[in-house]
Amino acid sequence: MNLILCGGGWAEKTVIPNKLFESLIDAAQPILYIPLARDRGEDNYDSCKTWLTSELKDIKHGEIVMLRSASEIADKNVSDFSGVFIGGGNTYKLLKELKESPAFEWLKNYLQTGGVIYGCSAGACLCGYDIDSCLYMDPNDVRLLDVTGLDAALGFSIAAHYTNGDRAETELATKYLTEYSKKTPVLALPEEDSLYITDDLVKVVGSRPYYMFNQGMRTEFQPEIEYTVQEFQKLT
């Protein structure tokens, strides 16, 4: 398993995770792009593909194959893709569409068979224990009841864009995540940080502090420290 969970952002904020993604993929093989957290819009996600092409322009990668609906996953083999990029938007919309198709289980299988997933913002939150960690900023307009995510982040739920807003926004997020963490631990990432998880190692790459919320307490950590999976889980 190779999992990159980015706190959000674009351009200069994602140079480090983009380069990490490049080091993990085979540039001769396609990348699968899942933009379903966004509204389909009149262009049927074409602008999303244009954005990702620009976002990854400085790294070597294969063809970008984009899903326009989750059901399209049915005719795709996990071995066909060097990596999967899951973009931002509304996490509830994303999870609902994935769970109403074979795509949710496809992604689980892809990770379990050694695949590389790069989740950004909503795509990162999707990979956590459940997605209610983002309810303070993402409305559940689709009325999703089963909010369990891919649960690939060592039992943590993920919060994105943490501390990138103004003071009031950060206070709102902190209050919500403090309460939420009484039932589920959370890793809250700023846009400049990405959580990298393999079968053996865990590292947050980036340039700003990230935060762990657990049992109603918030603890600050610095990026670029490598842990074993066991060491990281003990931090809670």
How would you portray this structure in words?
The protein is of the alpha/beta class and 236 residues long. The chain has a single domain (2-234), classed as Class I glutamine amidotransferase (GATase) domain (Rossmann fold). The chain is built from 7 helices and 12 strands. It has helices at residues 15-24, 46-55, 91-99, 103-112, 122-126, 167-180, 229-234, and strands at 2-6, 31-34, 64-66, 83-86, 116-120, 157-159, 186-188, 193-198, 201-206, 210-214, 217-221, 226-228. Strands 3-2-4-5-1-8-9-12 form an 8-stranded mixed sheet.
Descriptive keywords:
236 residues, four-stranded mixed β-sheet, eight-stranded mixed β-sheet, alpha/beta, 27% helix, 7 helices, Rossmann fold
What oligomeric assembly is this protein in?
A: single chain
The largest sheet, given as strand count, sense and whether it forms a barrel, is: 8 strands, mixed
How many β-strand stretches? 12
Rough outline = globular
The CATH topology turns out to be Rossmann fold
> In which range does the helix fraction lie?
25-40%
SSE string: EHEHEEHHEHEHEEEEEEH
Q: Given the structure, what is the number of helices? A: 7
Task: Tell me the count of domains.
Answer: 1
Radius of gyration: 16 Å
CATH class: Alpha Beta
Strand content: 15-25%
How would you write the strand order of the largest sheet?
3-2-4-5-1-8-9-12
Average pLDDT confidence is 97
Euclidean distance between termini CA atoms:
22 Å
Which structural class do you get from the secondary structure elements?
Answer: alpha/beta
Question: Spans of 5+ residues with little confidence (pLDDT < 50)?
Answer: none
CATH architecture descriptor text = 3-Layer(aba) Sandwich
CATH superfamily: Class I glutamine amidotransferase (GATase) domain
